[in-house]
User: Which sequence fits this backbone?
């Protein structure tokens, strides 16, 4: 399947299904954290959006979300399966 149209070489590209990649712009590091957030203007209160973060970007992304009042909590990436990301 080539749903995203990303075919055509780049054999080094990791499988996006199995790899959790940091959500920070331009970062391709593996994510070790999941930031759970909610924008009350767009989402119902129960809804949780998830950003993935590597160790280097976790704090930066938390601050970005906190500054907007969106940040809820951060969990280890390994626990995201149990969180059932929206
Ligand atoms: Zn990163």
Assistant:
């Amino acid at each position: 399947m080539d749903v995203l149209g990303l075919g055509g070489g780049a054999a080094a590209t990791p499988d996006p299904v199995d790899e959790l990649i940091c959500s920070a712009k331009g970062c391709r590091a593996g994510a070790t954290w999941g930031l759970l957030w909610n924008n009350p203007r767009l989402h119902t209160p129960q809804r949780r959006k998830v950003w993935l973060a590597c160790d280097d970007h976790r704090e930066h992304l938390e601050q970005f979300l906190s500054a907007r009042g969106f940040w809820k909590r951060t969990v280890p990436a390994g626990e995201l399966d149990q969180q059932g990301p929206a």
